[in-house]
Amino acid sequence: MRLAVAFLTLLVLAPAASAAPNVEIRRTSHGIPHIKAKTFYGAAYGYGYAFAQDNLCEMAETYVTVDGERSRYFGPDGSYESRGNGAEFNNLDSDFFFQRIKDDRVVEKLLEQPPPSGPLPEIREGARGYAAGYDAYLAEVGVNGIPDKRCRGKAWVRPITELDAFRRFYQLALLASSGVAIDGIAQAQPPTPAAGPGLPLPPLPTQGQLGTLQDRLPLGDLGSNAVALGKKATSDGKGLLLGNPHFPWDGPERFYQAQLTIPGETDVAGASLFGVPIILIGRTQNLAWSHTVSTAFRFTPFELKLVPGSPTTYLVDGQPREMRRQEVTVRARTSDGTLEPRKRTLYSTEYGPMFTSLLGLPLFPWSPTSGYALGDANASNFRLLNHFLEVNRAQSTAQLDAIERRYQGIPWVNTIAADSTGSAYYADIGTVPHVTDEEVARCNTTALGTATFNALGLPVLDGSRSECRWGTDPDAAVPGILGPARMPSLFRDDYVTNSNDSYWLSNPAHPLEGYDRIIGDERTERSLRTRTGLRIVADQLAKGPFTRQILQDAVFSDRSLAGELMRDDLVGACKPDLAEACAVLKAWDLHEDLDSKGAVLFRRFVSRLLDSGAPTAGIWRTPFDANDPVKTPRDLNVDDPRVEAALRGAVDDVNGLGKGLAVTLRQVQFERRGDERIPIHGGPGDPEGDFNAINVPWVPGEGYPNVPHGSSFVMAAHLDGSKCPDLRTILTYSQSTDPGSPYFADQTRMFSRKAWVDPGFCERDILADRALTIQRLGTVRCTSRRTITYRLPLRRRERIRRVRATVNGRRVKIRRVGLRGVRVSLRGRPKARYRIRVTVKTSRKRTIKLDRRARTCAPRLKGRRR
I need a labelling partner for 39 at 20 to 30 A (CA). Which of 497, 526, 538, 835 fits? Predict the structure, then answer.
């Protein structure tokens, strides 16, 4: 058995160096790769190769992070932003966190499990293929030849292994659980001997700290909208889906758009987070799905009672138990460039690792009498990979629901989907600790737990009693999590929607109630963005059914619900010295379009009023009513002194821009790409209620420069059941992070114009693209013929106008063969490998590029006739 495990480890650690599979990468407009292969290994190989072409530097640094080597290359005192959860972590703390995962062989042990807990064979193939494709591109260009100057020639850029790929997957699984406590886990140390038991109890969290956690947990810096429309809400009785995730515009938690085709097995298009060679949000022929960040907690703190005089011994049912001490060693770069070992002892319990903070807030101190361990339900979750593999093949919401229930692999999101039969589907079925409301009543007994549970729904369980461990359900995929029957889901033939509030109002006609608080809240006020989404659907259905175009127009309508609810009351109570500001607001069109005069002024007002962290009680004259949740609260209470103060502050803010009170977003909200400033429409989903959430911090004197996160991969899918499905997308920040790439800002400019991409799905549409590039990877067979003929994918009545070819970068003559063929000659060249590139301009103003490899060998000798 040990020999088998050792052999498995060697296989996982070995660089991906096997022979390249036969893969075809067809890039269409905006650099979208449509990858076609015979196996999942081949498809993932093509994905890894194409992805590395576009985003190698960003991903290479991420592999440094998950390998626990940031201190080695970037220094122990540096830090990095974890944009996926809004945290910032010190390099050394991060290295200790990930190195312990490596030392404990956490990922390797998960890989050793059989399915469904461990990965399916296709997932293993895919990870190997992805690593091999990534490495093939790196080997082709060489570290010193990487086009992106940001990492060209850097020592931290290296080939990756299958294990590196899985470590990245694991990092993403932990994003909303242990990933928000990396520093709290790495820094957790027992109190010094001088700390006696007579010390006062640590203070309870302040309202400000609880407000920060409320805003940032589970993943407050991320968000999303999704709307699934069923047969009763669409013009043709088929399904429609809008996916609108709000994710970072920088860093590795961006989306990458692609299509993966394995003929007869898988054909799926959409997007995935960097480094994941499988579609996470997308569509098959008959099913489309998206995700929104869930309100459910995926972890719970356990409060431990410690043995007096021994702060690393805790009690369970009165019996002492020793914490596990683990010395972790990482290598750190010193000021003179040499490396030195850094050691730290980390501690863990049967519940999980000891920790002292969440998102940098020191709310869980380790004292002589008590400490806290973090229980993480996603710490053993590799089921998510199997989940997405099967969803990539699913064709109906019923199949999707069965996958959700079988694996419960979703780590921190809701699922919203529609299919070609006109079924709409919502679910928050995933990995959530089995902590029922009854257990909370028994086990959440401390003042700290009461404060966090009342404010956030996050209990702090009593770790001194075994009865307070997580329970389990008979239908749960694994012990310790809630079973599917205890989790919310809903099928509808009109619609479902979610905008990061809980499951409760997925459809107001069918509220979901009676679920445990750890999943989310019920009969409570919804965010303005949630209410905007529900109003968009209701307003349209009052006029008529949806079409794909109507759905597209709705998501980028940029209506401001806060403006609709507040503007008239605000202007009606205007003081004389604020007349100019009120005139601008009165003329405002209540949208956040690029040229909406008054949008900037109102945003500064509502941000000061609602985004200050102060309680909103008293701001509305009509309070929230659980029986009328979409329309309440409403009616601005202009007698509240905060209203006038917010408006005066907003006037000062906007005057500070020096562009007048009627300044527009076109002038002050933008994304920098090199020397270019691309104006960006949209505004804060919360507190303003813009469905097209563009969340940019205010910079005094400058405005709203550079989008940190917001609308990202936006998809409008019509499930009409045809072989060539109807789909429109926009990747707001574009496909590549390389400033020199043609795909660095092209879709960002389109997003600025509210334009959309028709990405193509079936062969006909892909081959008809106006900017088609076809690249073939794989085994290069020896050809004894010294001429190679290529047949071009021309459309009917399309003709070749101009053609150009190079062999190993040098231009060569080319001959046309018939109406659709071109022939490249290799005559006179020695036996060798060649890279042949052909560029064709056609009569329909299309550009078709072919990128092929060839290997010549000695010609066969023909036998002589006697």
Answer: 835
* Beta bridge mates, 699: 703
**Are the CB atoms for 450 and 323 separated by under 8 Å?**
no
Residue identified by tokens 């914490």 is: 323
* Residue 1, pLDDT score: 41
What are 41-79's pLDDT values in tens digits? 999 999 999 999 999 999 999 999 999 999 999 999 999
Separation between Cα atoms, residue 834 and residue 821, nearest integer Å: 20
Pairwise CA distance, residues 396 & 417, whole Å: 9
Nearest to 239 by CA among 510, 536, 495, 537: 495
d(CA 379, CA 117): 12
Instruction: Give the separation between CA 650 and CA 653, rounded to whole angstroms.
Output: 5
Closest CA to 227 of 249, 245, 209: 245
pLDDT band at residue 9 under the 50/70/90 scheme: very low
DSSP class per residue in 15-75? B--SPPP-EEEEEEGGGEEEEEESSHHHHHHHHHHHHHHHHHHHHHHHHHHHTT-HHHHH-
Active site residue 82: no
Q: What is the DSSP letter of 394?
A: -
Determine which one of 71, 82, 224, 752 is catalytic. 224
Compute, in degrees rounded to 10, the torsion defined by CA atoms 66, 72, 78, 79: 0
Structure tokens at 305: 């009672």
pTM check: above 0.90 = yes
Instruction: State whether residue 580 is helix, strand or coil.
Output: helix
CA distance 759 to 158: 32
Pick from 189, 140, 231: nearest CA to 777: 140
What does the alpha-carbon distance between residue 560 and residue 565 come to, in Å, rounded to a whole number?
A: 9
Q: How far is CA 105 from its chain centroid? A: 26
| 8 Å CB contact between 847 and 770 | yes
The CA-atom distances, in angstroms, between 8 and each of 3, 99, 224 are 9, 20, 39
Mean pLDDT in residue range 436-449? 94
Is residue 529 within 8 A of residue 225, CB to CB? The reply is yes
Q: Residue 98's closest CA among 170, 16, 162?
A: 170
